[in-house]
């Protein structure tokens, strides 16, 4: 029978939280930059603006990570706020995409991939439109659920570290 490992010392636990925050913040910055470029290429101004704001939440998370290294008590608040802000932005973007379906953009992106299969089946993009609209809406709903699990989970994880931060500051 294997014994569970001993709990981490507060300083080690705090260093782990700071590493997670730094990695997640950097990932958010990189992904946001890619989405800004993609949105600008597609002339999706709302998407570009939301991606820029998402990049700001990544920068805020990295700032919170830096504050944790100094054991500043407000470092965790930066981390929680960045996750909840990003969650709100993802939900806002998903709601925007859900309510602003662009059939011309969908056709331009999907038709080249399916042209041969559609011709073989004797179908047109108009025949596929209801299915594409459903897929578009389901994607927005799934994005909201995934963001709730990930961003909400990280916000909860960061918030739970308050006693660890207090112990490390002693």
Give the arrangement of secondary structure elements.
Elements: H1 10-41, H2 45-69, H3 75-99, H4 103-121, H5 125-159, H6 162-169
In short:
This protein has 170 residues and is mainly α. Helix content is 85%, strand content 0%. The longest helix has 35 residues, at 125-159.
Structure notes:
With 170 residues, the chain is mainly alpha-helical. 85% of the residues lie in helices and 0% in strands. The chain has six helices and no strands. The longest helix has 35 residues, at 125-159. It is elongated, with a radius of gyration of 21 Å.
Work out the number of β strands.
0
Percent strand equals: under 5%
Number of helices: 6
Low-confidence stretches: none
**Class by alpha and beta content:** mainly alpha
**Rg, Å, rounded:** 21 Å
Please describe the biggest sheet, giving its number of strands, its sense, and whether it closes into a barrel: none
What general outline do the C-alpha atoms trace?
Answer: elongated
Helical proportion, percent range? over 70%
In whole angstroms, the N-to-C terminal distance is 35 Å
Let me know the average pLDDT.
Answer: 89
Helix/strand order, N-terminal first: HHHHHH
